[in-house]
User: Fold these one by one.
Assistant:
Number 1:
Amino acid sequence: MNLCSGLFVAACILFSFCGGESCCAQGTLSIETLAEQARREYTAGKFSDAERDYRELTKRDPSNVEGYVYLGQSLFRLEKYSESVRPYEKARELERNGSKLTSDQHRILVDQLVMAYGMSGEMKKARSLLDDAIQKDPEYPLNYYNLACVSGGWPTHPCTGTIEAASTLRLFEG
């Protein structure tokens, strides 16, 4: 076996040992490859791996709003509620500064941030965020449901209201 053949065999073994993924440090993957790998990990429920890769992605691409949203999602799914606030807030900052989210993505971001604040015991911040969300998006019923949860003592008491009941709260908001 010549040197080229030996190196090729070694590379193939290394590649298959890694399951087809690069064994090199995350820093050597392209941003696109790293983002795709993190998405696959998140989708597969490998939230610790997704957290690691989304941290690296947002470090290398600090303007990646989706990276911050999914870093927050990964942390939230790992029940690291307080930790999830920072990437969610960074995503909101990027959105305010021109990064685009669809209406649905924005709503999900706000919902998750409200829940992260609530689960962290930051009820005033959750309430303030909801007041702003209701003012900007008064037709979105989940904002009223979340408001009922925050107003009802959540997270220590489970939120037992319904979206229909919660949406009536807007009649009494001043």
Number 2:
Amino acid sequence: MRDTDRRCDELARHLIDNANIRLNHPFKQPAGRRGAAGFVSLDFPTVYITVVAGSTRGFQVKNNIFNVLGGKMDDSRHETREIGVQQIDVHTDTRDILARNKAAAIRQRPADLFVVDIDSHHVESEFWGEILERIEDPVHRENALALAKSAGGLPYMYNSAPNLQSVGDRIPHQSARREKTDVTGLHRDLVLTRRAMESIGLDYMIVFPTPLLGLSDHPQVEMQVLLGRAYTHWVVDNLLPQEPRMKTMCLLPITDPAAALQIVKDFGDRKGIVGFVITGNNNKPVHHNDLMPVYAEIEARGLALAFHGGITWNTNQMRTVNRFIGMHALSFVMCNMIHLTNWVLNGMPERFPKLKVIWIESGLAWVPFMMQRLDNEYLMRVSEAPLLKRLPSEYIREMYFSNQPMERTDLDLVKSTFKAIRAETQLLYASDWPHWDFDLPGVIWDLPFLSEDAKRNILGFNAARLYNLEVPKDKRGIAVS
């Protein structure tokens, strides 16, 4: 078998087992022409892919896909057939979108597999009125509610960049969540969360907002604080008490250090809070002296501090990028590259040695680059980082990283990255559900170079150790120390 045919065959099997496949365009194969070129475009949860037919084996790959979707095309000599589109939109049930993953999990993964999703999202804009009701300042609360009633949208939010996440509305399921929920007595957001947890096979889900991840771009600092607190109240008062498997990390408005410290004190003891998160791009550097009491308070409580990557087209550098895909690839990573550089070189790991630090939704490919780059610079100018007692890479290896979105086009590079970051003990599984580029547990479980113990650690036990989560009796195991 040719190498390209083998890779297509492996990819087809992976798609069939792990994805809810949709044909974008009906595939037509001219009758009587063996080996004629054609193509079929497939949507699945992480990427778009095109399988090109250039050989009989290539057609067999597509035939496997067609058979799963209900088509019938045993070889290229059959008459032309069309396969109908299976459309996923804002009304599609979560359980239908994730049905193939659930089936694959039952077939291929151990029943006692413990899985924690440390970065999932809900679309809080669907419940924006409930959040605005919790704005603590009465004047801003009244103004926001009036604007929501008269103008719609997200009053008091600020985003001047075009939102192209839905790819021209071709991947619309994250734009709004309009699927039916018939459960009474339970908040709709919890119904949707439980559907996702059951379908993905999760024991815990740590949930973050979606539009509010851009809150640090808001030009009014007081609104960063008020909206962040209102959202946190909505989650901890409304949702977490009803679902003990659902956790969250509080938004931390570091632009106002005093307000950030008060948030840690107000919410640090609330049930379901596992830490605090600094989102996206911030005008205040993370090593600013005014933030030291904030970090000290989080460390003293034994909670985690996360840096969640964010998307922006509103910086001078990003404005030179003319494609959304380029901005998306770079901006989610650049903010955390800057935060990590400032965090390490200014000696934060030495000042707060027990503070558990996590880097979320920037993928992994950037981390080895940062290790080598910072080590190289540091060794030439040690005097500029006087607080450091070790190489920057040694501090970085003690931090935690989420996999999503996991770059996996080259397994050799993935393997070397896992070795560099000590993935067996420091990597955390994240889905980023329901966003368009989400990753299912198979991205970890299917990696051929990991032992089963390493897979179990990454998918669940590392997070249990980090967040002090209780592991169910039927799923207990020993995480690698």
Number 3:
Amino acid sequence: MSDQVLSPGTTTAVLTMSLATGDNQIAGLQADVTFPIEGSIAVKANGEPDCTVNPAINKGGTSFAFRPNGCGGTGCSTVRVLVLAIDNVDPIPDGSVLFSCNVSVAPGFIGTLNYTLLGVILSDPNGGKVLPVNNQNGTISIPGGPTSTRQPTPPIPSTATPQPTWTPYPTWTPSPTWTPTLTGYCGTTAGTCTPPPTSTPSPTSPPLVVPVFTCHVSSPPPSGELLYGLSGVILSDPAGNVVKDAGDQDGQICFGDGCPPPRSAPAGPALWIPDQTLDVSTTLPTITVEFLPANAEVAGLQCDISYPANAPIAAKANGKPDCTVNPDIDKDATSFAFRPSGCSGNQCSSVRALVLSGDNVDPILPVFPGNGGIPTGTPTAPLLQATPTIAMPEGTGTPTPLLHPTLVSSTSTPSPTSTTGHASASTSTTNSEGCQIPTATDGHVAWGWLAAVVGLVVRRRRGIRRRP
């Protein structure tokens, strides 16, 4: 970060960070910028840091977050920066400005504002960690006063009352099996007792799913079937490792009569796009990518969605896919990009989604209504049954959502269907941080990049725990 000297009375400034690559190729990075209270990094209307990535470096997946996690106002002391792209691993040119942040200077402040770089991690195009790493702090000086340095947070007094440790609910123990009582006269003659009628077992509940993101579809035809394919599914656990045997299932939108029945969900862990049967009058459909956890813990994921030329995924005004991540899963660094890289209009044939957070590696979990068994602070998402849906015709007085979520009773027992997903095959190696890195076979971003992103957060968290 470069030093600056400003005139007395200044209340705003711009802080910039640049990259000196030396002889290395740097495709992405993470860093924490600590700031003083008198010169805090400004806040946008949405509560995020008022920082902007340099568009010239083509890293559209870049994200910024205040730290410590969940802070607000003067409780925030740091901005975490994650600079990356989901559609390229191109090296960033030497000397490039990476990003800039607007600074709010306290009125009447005179002195020097110190900005400190911590936790700098650089990644090469293969997802490997670049070592060694040097960094240089920055200052903003307004002549005429003392130096401003953020003081460390005082320790909590030892007399503070400790908070009780969360104790999970005891494991549910089923009641003894009920034995029916025979009816009729049971005498000494065998076979004179009449047993009650045999009960019919309840149908198996569908598996539990979490909506991950939705995408709007542009200008669908009035009839026929539209196929949306899922490929390149990669699931990452909280430690940055690949979740093996991840499945996937394509989805389709069918209009009018004569549509095939919607298919059941695949076996988890998997991603799928539920089938939909829509009325011919529907003009603005959406597709939803859902996650079936099964017993897997997944903190981040990557997938590609191919679409038909006559009903592509819509584009926003800025040219990016019109897709939105489910806010309940707390993965605010999620990004979407049209493929192939650099395409536009009808040259694009798919969308790549990278679902992750820059400040947590919490698993994506469903909500179990009323169970009381999820600790406070665990991010959860609405619990849905994986039941394909049929939308009602418009104008009938009945709402026409494209996905009908059904809350599941806490007494139901989920059971996965027998449909098998297609496992994602990959060839992997292991980098210096112990992350599995499958080799890229199509010239696109390989698993190593997603592993590196998750690994950045994991390593950062470990560093915070080690710091006294």
Number 4:
Amino acid sequence: MNEKYINLQKNLITNQVGVQKQTKKNQNKPKTMADHNELGELGEQRAQAYLHAKGYKIRHTKWRTGKLELDIVAEKDGWLVVTEVKTRSTDTFEAPEEAITNRKIRNIINATHEYIHTFDWQGYTRFDVISVIPEGQNFRIDHIEDAFLSPLI
């Protein structure tokens, strides 16, 4: 089993503690929602460019069903690749992928189930996570393939 997958699973279990620590340490940090949204949008753009450069065909971005959203839906080598993008200004307190909770995974799986039915996808499906962290003028991108499994698909 993939080491990053195992670490992601461990992080999901301890996520509650990590979020509490991050919240307490960042209380004095002035961040606006606009800054947060802008960074998230930039991270998703970088993730799309990264996937495109790796030969993925981007099918949809920000695909919605009800209140659920899939960040990036791509295709490569006959696989539907549903990618959750997590962008953070720093990984000092928590790696971006650690912010993916069990609830978030359920939401991604449910949205993917709808996507598959809507577009009559007949191939294989996998779930990836891309974390994006600014480093000076560049970005560090970590791509975790097969980050989690679904009992539905």
